[in-house]
Amino acid sequence: MRTLFNILIIATSGYLLLLLMLYLFQGRMVFISNFPERALSASPGDIGLEFENVSLTTEDEERLHGWYVPSANSRGTLLFFHGNAGNISHRLDSIRIFHDLGLDVLIIDYRGYGESTGSASEKGTYLDAQAAWDYLVNSRGIPAHRIIVFGRSLGGAIGAWLGAHNDPAAVIIESSFSSGVDMAKRLYPFLPARLITRLRYPVVDYAGQLNCPVLVIHSRHDEIIPFDMGQAIYAAVKKHKTFLEISGDHNNGFLISHADYVAALRDFIQSSLSD
After folding, report:
1. Which domains are delineated in the chain?
2. Rounded to whole angstroms, how far apart are CA atoms 193 and 191?
3. Residue 164 CA, distance from chain mean position
4. What pLDDT was estimated at residue 151?
5. How many Cβ atoms from other residues are within 10 Å of residue 242's Cβ?
């Protein structure tokens, strides 16, 4: 009996220690474990696109690096928030797509990514997004109704937050999760995810606050973020919404479904910026 009791004590202590570690260090686990790379491996110039290096300062004095990629005869501007891994230099395929659709593109690296200072956090990514928005509106003088916010994966959560707190022409949420808690439940079904999750990113809540046209994109074959999370985001949007189902995995679905993907983007962009 004593041996069984000791085993239970050790198991309980180990479980509680695991909960504490996940609670205290989940920011490092989410961001650092997914390799927010510092070194830029390429630039838009490598695929024949003109671009400007952009430096932004956030409300809390972090310096962000980004690229502004103009498009000839631009119909509007896309504010691009990328996913968790890598940095802006790994998004050239997407930059080209939006450039060819007639949009100027501003893409930034969050704090702790690429050449941006600081270290990533949920609040920090929101401050980064707002700094990018303010740069377009205040420094470049671009009207809010000519700006489309785009976010993929983690960037979808950040873009949904920005869209809920500003007034863009439209928001595109691609391959994103419904909330940080929902992702934690999926990854750690044996843990009390709601109690220990500090990175909340309540995307469905932000989606419900959007007043502009919204395009939700997700693949049924996404191996990282389940398809039903994309459906949940779509269901939360109250009006002016479109859902595009693509094929392929989490990182390459937009390339695998290229023709349908670009056609849907073209239609959505045209309807969102028509005035």
Report:
1. 2-273 (3.40.50.1820)
2. 6
3. 14
4. 98
5. 18
